[in-house]
Records
---
Amino acid sequence: MNSTHMLLFCLRERLLDSDVISLACFLVEDLRASSPADLSHDEYQTAADWLRTHTRHRPEVAIICGSGLGMLADTLGCQESFAYSDVPGFPQSTVQGHAGRLVFGVLKGKMCVCMQGRFHMYEGHTLSKTTFPVRVFKLLGVKTLIVTNAAGSLADGLQPGDIMIIKDHINFPGFVGLNPLIGPNDDKFGPRFPAMSNCYDKELRCLATEIGKQLEITGLMREGVYAMVGGPNFESIAEARLLHRLGVDAVGMSTAPEVVVATHCGLRVFGLSLITNKVVKTYEDSDSVNHEGVLEVSRLRSVTVQQLVTELIGKMDINNNGPNDAGTKF
Ligand SMILES: O=P(O)(O)O[C@@H]1C[C@H](O)[C@@H](CO)O1
Ligand SMILES: Nc1nc2[nH]cnc2c(=O)[nH]1
């Protein structure tokens, strides 16, 4: 008996009020529809096979570009690109600053695939669709995932234009059951109960800090905790204060589901947030954030982010797949 059958049984036996039952059934269906379990292994495989037959690139590194940071894809050598609409199973990007192209190419001698535009939960995509490309990358042979995003800062030491290397995250939607791993586990991708204590690879974080020194941008860089909220609205002042008190350094509307799915299937992950705005925390402050401002700051710093990511890819050891690799079947 599944949860819906159980609720219907309660209704028949008059154990629960019918309105409560309808609401609960709706929520159960909704949760089920938003988990990767609503996609079969074949759907990921079909996308991976399609890409294998349409490009000779065999990427080892995948990069997901955050809002306004898609220009990184333009720096890849020997490029081949595909509109998301052409790739079987890929959803569409609907947000300004997310072009909706998958770009294959070479960066510092390493084969890469770059998402010029990501999918967000607030666009109405299920979490399985939001994270779909990550599992496709795994099937393509990718070993390392680099995620970037635009985020608002709560930490006093983080200013617009700064780069925060993500040390850890808080997946707030996961607290209320919006986790991409909910549903039957696909053992071919990873274990039922994956650890998340090493989800942002320490060695890559140290390497990025070293590269920051060489690029003379240490003044712009620090490590911190990223929190994902559902969006699409930015934070109220009370929400901002709550996040600040909880120890969140930067807040955004993406990344955590991708990283959870990547860690589940044994990918090594590096993440960075480009701080595009300070989150307003006082009622006296008349500032307010908007998406155009976010994109503007992203574009101003995109070259610096590109340099950091490019050097990191050049210097990373592609064969060290970090501590999360043990559970995968590939
Ligand atoms: O894709 P990311 O996380 O970079 O996008 C951030 C969060 C919202 O999508 C948008 C708000 O401006 O930027
Ligand atoms: N939630 C959230 N996402 C962002 N993305 C860029 N800036 C912000 C912000 O201030 N809050």
---
Amino acid sequence: MRVTRLQVGGLRCFDQVGFAPGPGLNLILGGNGDGKSSLLEALHLMAYGRSFRGRVRDGLVRTGAPSLAVFVEWSEQVSGRSRRAGLRHNGQTWEGRLDGAPLAQLGDLCAALAVVTFEPGSHALVMGPAEPRRRFMDWGLFHVEPEFLRLWRRYGRALKQRNSLLKGRIRDAQLDAWEHELDAVGTLLTRYRQHYLEQLQPYLQATAAMLLPVAEGSTLQFLPGWRQEELSLADALLLSRERDLATGFTSVGPHRADWRIDHARIPGREALSRGQAKLTALSALLAQAEHQAARRGEWPVVALDDLASELDRRHQDQVLRRLQDYGAQVLITGTEAPAGSAHMLPPPAVFHVEHGILVAEGTASPPA
Ligand SMILES: Nc1ncnc2c1ncn2[C@@H]1O[C@H](COP(=O)(O)OP(=O)(O)OP(=O)(O)O)[C@@H](O)[C@H]1O
């Protein structure tokens, strides 16, 4: 998958900026606060329906601008298709289009455009709460299991219904019916997740061996969200019913699922240094990208925000060489070019951002 055009308007420091990345390595260079991360944030927004730096109301829309708009065009190597999508936020709601048709749900866009992002907050994937890890797992599944998004929505709907009955302290046949639906869909959804993590395992072993050899072996452990080894989901829901009626929400089930990475030579996540936590998160993200490439026959776009401040020179060099060898499209931001990039062949495409204006190296004026 290759992004051929990214157009951003009214987002953070950008009034209007257009960008046509090259097919391989792309360096987006500039000073602090010039807007490098915001460009990747715009692309991430299209692939995940959310920013990696908080909610829309946390300053995503440029001060004084009525709305933000992002437009992206990309090509799929396997199908040969050229695709396009646009997203606008008017301060209240999202409105989007995918391949010319109105977008019914943001999830449809997330399932279409595959971008794997590593950014300064990515260590939360290892050190933070379960939610980003669930998102990681589900986002990966949106791209490799076409049925998963539908199941995921069905589960979300059933959960909302059960929670609303619990809040109203209603114990009637409807509660039974929604629990039945949660059990049927949730059990299947869990099987997909479990299988996905099993498939990811060898990829993680390889990426972690490259980035964190001191770990001497890394394994993924799936936590389904209830005591699955002892109980079916239906039984777990029934058992937790009284407690759930008292609290007004569903305390067990796939919406509480999680996973963790165990390293053979590092006792637990608390023992990881900040750098090791980042390398663990990057190992998981690269494993996800490699697995997707193997399953779909093409790499997702890889976006690496401020790589030089996240990794030492040796690790930067390793990551870039691996991604270049695989032929992935990579977008990297930094205040300067990362270690080793000057000697890469073919050489990376270089773009400079300055005060919200972007210029491709070797051109005199901003790209249209
Ligand atoms: N809502 C907003 N309206 C206008 N400008 C904004 C808004 N939100 C952020 N900015 C500005 O946009 C710029 C965003 O910078 P961004 O984080 O993309 O920079 P960067 O080049 O990645 O910087 P660094 O190297 O410091 O990480 C900053 O100058 C910030 O002050």
